[in-house]
Amino acid sequence: MKKPNILLIYKRSALSMAGKISGRLHNSRKFLDNHLAHYEALRSIEKILKKYDVPYKKYARGAFEDYSPYDVIVTVGGDGTVLHAARWVNRRQIILGVNSDPSWSVGEFCCTDAARFELKLKNLLCHKLKTCRLYKLQIRLKDGHRTRRAECLNDILICHANPGAMSRYALTIGGIKEDQRDSGIWFSTAAGSTGAMLSAGGKAMPISSTDFQYHPRELYQVKGVPYRLPGGFVKRPRKAVLVSFMPHGRVFVDGAHIKFPFTYGSRAEISLSSNFVQLVHD
Questions:
Q1: What distance, in Å, lies between the first and last C-alpha atoms of the chain?
Q2: Topology classification of domain 6-129
Q3: Which CATH superfamily is domain 137-273 in?
Q4: Would you place residue 31 in the very low, low, confident or very high pLDDT band (cuts 50, 70, 90)?
Q5: What is the spatial distance between Cα 73 and Cα 52, in angstroms, rounded to a whole number?
Q6: How far apart are the C-alpha atoms of 56 and 8, rounded to whole Å?
């Protein structure tokens, strides 16, 4: 039986990115404990892969982007590492997320930790792993003569570059158009609906849903003028269209790692992508 070709993607610990332990680092013992637990988990996973003679390559998150030769992407870290990998996989590949330190990371997208990884690997080799299909969001952003595109598994935030400034834009969904003023607007997939979207006042969605959700944050209320688009769900193949009224707006895709300018007159189209991620679940 042919063994899968594995790409092992791991995050760098917060402590390793800081470079050294600083006496001024708040709660530095916690950072050190996470650093040790994370790299011990990584060593344990590599040891198990070698035990079963499974071919693999190892790269730090962000150091490698050609995922195409691999069958399985094993991520070691937390949800951020899974989200990073999800940007680069195709439909035939699967992601197996390992939470390297459950005391540090929530790991909603991680199906196992280092202690249970061997069992997951055995099931993988016997073709017994269960996967779920998670759809991505896509954004098409036009700014003057330049068009940018991106996809994500989790969420998109559009807001003013200054978090203390008001966000202004025109929003169109399902033939309804209105100007909105608020602290920014979230868009999320079903998979991302239990993160920032839920914290901001949105709703948790069934993970297999093919809808996406939007939720303006802290809408500025004009007396006697109710909003018609205060948040809700957008069914496929509908899209949300935003036009910026901000000189210094920003689009943040899956956190702060991918961001684009959203200046006055820029146009963003957000919809559910036809691409999906096969994620191993319990």
A1: 24
A2: Rossmann fold (3.40.50)
A3: Probable inorganic polyphosphate/atp-NAD kinase; domain 2 (2.60.200.30)
A4: confident
A5: 17
A6: 7
**3-state helix, strand and coil shares in percent for the chain, rounded to the nearest 5:** 20, 40, 40
Q: What are phi and psi of 260, to 5 degrees?
A: -130, 150
Q: Which of 44, 24, 41 lies closest to 33 in space, CA to CA?
A: 41
Question: Does residue 22 register a pLDDT over 60?
Answer: no
Structure tokens at 158: 């559009």
Output 235-239 pairs: Cβ under 8 A, ≥24 positions apart: 235/210, 235/211, 236/210, 236/211, 236/271, 236/272, 237/271, 237/272, 238/173, 238/174, 238/271, 239/173, 239/269, 239/270, 239/271
- Residue 52's pLDDT is 96
Q: Amino acid letter at 23?
A: G
Domains 6-129 and 137-273 share a fold: no
In this predicted model, which residue has the larger pLDDT, 40 or 17?
40
Q: Which of 246, 237, 238 lies closest to 267 in space, CA to CA?
A: 246
| Mean pLDDT across the chain | 91
Cα 39 from chain centre: 23
Domain ranges of the chain: 6-129, 137-273
Angle between helices 117-125 and 28-51 (to 10 degrees): 30
Query: Could you check whether the bond before residue 216 is cis, i.e. omega within 30 degrees of 0?
Result: no
Local structure of 29: helix, strand or coil = helix
Question: Which tokens belong to 147?
Answer: 């068009």
